[in-house]
Structure formats: structure tokens, C-alpha cells
Amino acid sequence: MGSSPSMGRSKRALFLGAALPCLVPGLALTALGSAPAAAQSLTPDLFNPNRGGFASPETLPTRRTAGVPQSPSDALPVLPDPAADPRKAREKPATSRIGQVPTYGLPAAAGASNSGYDSLNRKRQQPKLYPGQPKPKRAAGPGSPAPTTAPPPLTLGLPKIAPPPSASANKAPVPAAMAGTVPGQPLRRRLKADDDAFGAVGDYAGSFLIKGGLELSTGYDTNPTRLNKPVGSPVYVVAPDLLVASDWERHALVADLRGSFSGYTQNMPATIDGFASPSPVEADRPDFTGHVDGRLDVSRDLKLTSQLRLRLATDNPGSPNVQAGLQRYPVYAAYGTTVGFDQTFNRFQVAAGATVDRTAYTDSKLTDGSTFSNGDRDFNQYGGIGRFSYDLKPGLKPFVEIQGDTRVHDQAADRNGFFRDSNGGYAKAGTSFEFSRILTGEISVGYSARNYTDPRLSQLAGFLTSGSLIWNASGLTTMKFFTDTQIAETTVPGSSGVLVRTYSAEVDHDFRRWLTAVGKFTYGTLDYQGQNRNDKTYSLEGNLIYKLNRNIWVKGTLRHDILDSNQPGSSSQGTVMLVGVRLQN
Description:
- Pfam families: BBP2_2.
- Residues 1-30 form the signal peptide.
- This protein is mostly beta strands.
- It has a domain at 44-51 and 196-584: Maltoporin, Chain A (Beta Barrel), CATH 2.40.170.
- It is built from three helices and 23 strands.
């Protein structure tokens, strides 16, 4: 029975495996026997089992030279410690890895830095900001650009393509400390530019900003009482003012109080050409105008408004309402209040209010020592006012305003026997506008009328204009225009009242930030309806203001007044020269 092929191959492999070790030494000895024999010295390095042990490391051709860093593979291995028994190390149990997170050389979330994703959900360390430095906005997510610390833009909206050259004209250079551009200075929020470098700063009392001032002036007036034949006198003026404004996020409260007292050191004559003088002997005159405005923000579109007002003054010098033979001017007080609301419907706005006013005069003191009552000039006024406006486009807001009132006097008949109770009002239409902050203001035209209970007094009516316009002609020059129309009471027999129209223009020019010139021209008409008397007034005034600092100003004033009347002997002229100082905070 023959064997399989696989069994034969296995036997031949065993035979060759046994014969091969016997043949190799014989072949090696044969080769050595044919070559010349060389002796080799025995050294301890031949028994060194480490790599590089047959030669000294200092003599190796591949040794590391100076300045070449050594790679980890060139370092000689550290010999094992003979005291350590590897069998005991293998018998020691391995540490448990239950609950342990492998680090693989890096801790978890080590690459998150300050803006990447943190798998451990740890609270990030906030950057340390210097005092006054703007807080950077948080990045939207991974890959977002780092927030910049550039100052916010000074204006909102789209940037101007080509700003006019006057945009940077007459602007005080911003100090580097205020702009935050000092080298090495921490970044800070840029402060708002101060429009008036020499204006009053004021003080804070809680949440109210208080600004106060006092003007002291002295000079000469060539005709204090505006007589047809001038009689002059030295004059001094004391003019305090106070402004209190709230600094609230909602609601508002503002008080604006301004007054003056003009004192004359020389008395006027009591008689002229043997008759009682049409002007008082003592020409001293007080003047005060004050109002307190409040606003209550009920909602975004509804606001409740109110006002308290007070006017303290005398009749104008040269007015026919001034009695003859007076010792001093009688003082009147006109005070009242308005309560209303302001409602906005998208672009449409409605404002309305109820008004109550009172006008009262002091008794007249005559040169002979007697007194004369002015109770017939005292009256109460009750009325209401409404205004409807619409935002046609940004910077243009047309409106319509309607007002009506009733005047009731304390005495039914005045000193001349006329019944002066009346009803009246006005209606006007106009618009407020704002064009690139260069031209701003409001202008309106309308018609006013007043009817009296006395049939002998004709209706007082006329065309009225009202408005204010401010034109910033350049960075150095500002022009202002004002116009107003009012209906005033009078004591002239047979006259219904006085229709007073006033037009004024003012130019302010800064030669320097601390040196300002102001020019003002005023024109007015007084129409005494029913008596065919028409007066025209002209006033030309110039002021030069030198600002030493924010608290002290020096001011000079020169004014010339003209009263031109169609009544003989009623025209007059006068010039006022004043030099003073203003103290403010």
C-alpha cells in the first residue's frame, strides 16, 4: 500500500532540517582555512549588550555636534533597575479605570479657548475691563470674528457719502484724553462733544440738574420813561435765572425761572410844562417770567402734560395805558395753568389742553400821595386749545391749531364806563421743519378775532403770524428769526384792544470760542383798534460777550429804541449802554 504525496514531502523536510546544521560549520571552516588568519584583541566593550557599546560614543562618526538638538531616538536607553523584580510588577493588580476619562495627553476641552465649544459646560472667565472701557459684545458662535472695541458712531443711520466742509468747521479739538487716544491709556468710551465749551455745567441734586446764574450790569439810559423830551438817568440791572431739569428715563419736570430788576438813581420830573407828567417819577421796573412744565408718560403713545406759569411786569414805558401823575409803575401779575394730553396715532398726533389764567394789577400810587384802584383791569380767562399734526415725512410736520377763551373782568365796567368782557380765539395752520440740522423751526399763519359785550366796542380782529426759525449759516454764525401776534387789553377810551405784532432777527457770531458778538433787530406794530392809533417800535441792539471761563462772563450792551406814533407828542427815542458781569454755575 503506497504512501500519499504529503507524507513524502514531510519526510524530506525532516531530513534536510537535520543535515543542514552539520553542513554549515564545515563550509565555514573551509572558507576560513583558505583566508589568512588575523588576531583580535579582547576588550570589555565586546561584551556590552547596549547599542553603540562596541565603540565609545565620543568616537562615533554619527555623534551629535554642538548646536544640533538631540532626537529622542539617539538617546541611550536607561538600564533597568536590578533591585526591581519584573515578576513582582507583573503580579501587582492594575488600577481600575471605571469612571475615569482618558486624557490622551490633553485635558478635556483644552482647545476651546475663550470662544470655542466647551464640552464640560464650564463658566468662561470674563475679560478684565479698565474703568470706562466699553464692554465688548459676546461673539455669536464658533468662528465669529473677535469683537472690536472701536467707539460707537456719533450719529445713527446711514453714513454720509460726502459730508460738507462745514461739518468740521469751528469745532473745538477733542483732547486726546477725552477721545481715548493717548498711547498706553486704557480704552474708554468717547465722551459727548460739548457744544458750548464755556457754558454752565450745573450741579446735580438727586436726579435733577440745576443751573443758576446772576447778571450784574450798570450803565446809563438816556430816556428811561420814553418821554418826548428825553430825561436820562444812570441805571443798574440785577438779573437772576434758574433752570432745573429732571434726568429721568420716563416722565419729565422742567422749571425755567428768569427775572430782572432795573433801578434808576435819578427821578423823573413830576410835571412837564405845568401839567402832570405822563410818566412816573420813579422809573424802577421789575420783570419776571417763569414756568414749570411736567410730563407724565402713561404709555408709549399717551402723555399727560401740565404747566404752571407766572409773568410779573409793568406797562411798557410810553404806553397810553400809563396814567399821568404816577409816583411809580403799577405792577401786574399774570399767572395760570394748563392741563392736557398728547396722544399719538402712528403718524397722526393730537394735543389738547384746558387753560385757566388770572391777571391782577396793584393799585396806582400818585404823586399827591393818593392811590387809585386798578381793579377794573383785573380779569380771569378760561379757555382751551387743540393741535392736530401729522408726520408727513422726516423733518416736516404740518399742523392745525385752534384756540378759544372767555375773559371775565372783576368789575363789569371799567373806569371809562366800557364793558370789556369778551369771547375770542384764533385758528392757524403751519408746519414745523428740520432740514439737515441746518435750518430748523416752526412757522404758521392764521386769523384772530375777539367780540366784546359792549356794543360800543367793535370786533378786534386781524391777521396773525407766529413762528421761529434757526439757521446755522456756518459753524461760526447762527441766525434766528421770531414772529408773534397777541391781543392785549387796554384802558384807552373807545378802543377794543391792542393787536400787537412783533418781528425780530438775531445774528450770533463767534470770533473765538470765548468771544461772541450778538446783533438783534426788532420791529413791532401796535394797533389800537377803534381809536385810529398806530404805534411802531424799532429796536437795534448789540452785545459783546467775553467768556473768561465757564463761571464768569463779561458783557457789554448797546441798545437804541424808537417809538414812532401817529399821535402828536407820543413818539420817543432812547439809548441804553450797559457793562456787566455774569456769574453762573
